[in-house]
Design goal:
It is built from 3 helices and 19 strands. With 279 residues, the protein is an alpha+beta fold. Helix 1 runs antiparallel to helix 3. The protein is elongated.
Length: 279
């Protein structure tokens, strides 16, 4: 009986966390470059239930005898949300008419033979604590010191991991990443490549970090990797709002079903304590 309480409770907790993840996706549906999170739900290991035959109960005094055990079947012990992984499918490209905005367009990205998934390319940026981070949000601007930055102040890096100095937004970005001012190349936008993007740690503001803080390789030198850039555009979020709302309703219904099971167990316990106990 008490096992049923725990099993139903784990189902409610898993669906609550799933709903929180989906709510965050909806909240970022209009965030440029945002990658929707996906969850995986797994069950805890099942317990094998057995009963002791009456004829063998007395023989337990002389030691355990497996022949006296009769298997009843498996007992589920609940579920949990194992992990959340971003969906790196490219979002639609939207024109912004802002010269500092850049959209990163995926070309040919090799499939990792170990994971069976494609790699991913990212803009390279530098955080306030001088860590190198990666993002797909190309909504850039120029700060008061003349450096190209993200909307939240991270410095955009070139292919040599240096900050990009631009006095104003009067520059041209080629599809291959070269930034030119008055016909002279001043920098090349830094692009990183990851053959295992699921291994990156996703943090707030659409930033990704490597687990060991080692820099990702230069995408320009990666074999078989092709991509282009488009100035005056940004990549929109890849959140499907309609599908996400449908999935949220599904999660709510499952949460509600587990809640009713929990209530049923509670009523059974109430009868066992207050009614059967009086007999």
């Amino acid at each position: 009986m008490f096992r049923g309480f725990y099993t139903a409770a784990t189902g409610m907790i898993a669906q609550q966390r799933r709903t929180e993840m989906l709510s965050n996706n909806i909240a970022n549906a209009n965030t440029p470059g945002y990658k929707a999170d996906q969850s995986t739900i797994r069950s805890f290991p099942n317990m094998l239930m057995s009963s002791i035959q009456k004829t063998g109960a007395a023989s337990l005094q002389n030691g355990f005898n497996p022949s006296n055990m009769q298997q009843i079947g498996d007992l589920g012990t609940g579920v949990y949300m194992q992990e959340t992984l971003p969906n790196f499918l490219q979002g639609s490209i939207v024109e912004t008419e802002s010269n500092t905005d850049v959209a990163l367009l995926d070309g040919d990205l090799p499939v990792n033979p170990q994971t069976g998934k494609q790699g991913a390319v990212f803009f390279k940026v530098q955080t306030a604590d001088n860590r190198q981070a990666y993002t797909r949000n190309g909504n850039f601007t120029i700060d008061g010191q003349g450096f190209l930055t993200t909307a939240r102040g991270e410095y955009v890096l070139d292919e040599n991991n240096n900050r990009i100095a631009l006095q104003n937004n009067d520059f041209t970005l080629k599809s291959t990443g070269e930034i030119t001012v008055d016909g002279q190349q001043v920098a090349r936008l830094g692009i990183a490549y990851s053959d295992q993007p699921d291994a990156l740690e996703k943090q707030e503001n659409g930033l990704y970090f490597t687990a060991n803080n080692q820099d990702l390789p230069n995408a320009y030198n990666a074999n078989g990797v092709t991509f282009t850039m488009q100035q005056g555009f940004t990549e929109s979020s890849n959140v499907d709002s309609a599908q996400t709302m449908t999935t949220m309703m599904e999660a709510y219904r499952v949460f509600e079903a587990n809640q009713k099971v929990l209530q049923a167990y509670d009523r059974s316990m109430d009868k066992a304590v207050n009614e059967i106990g009086k007999v």
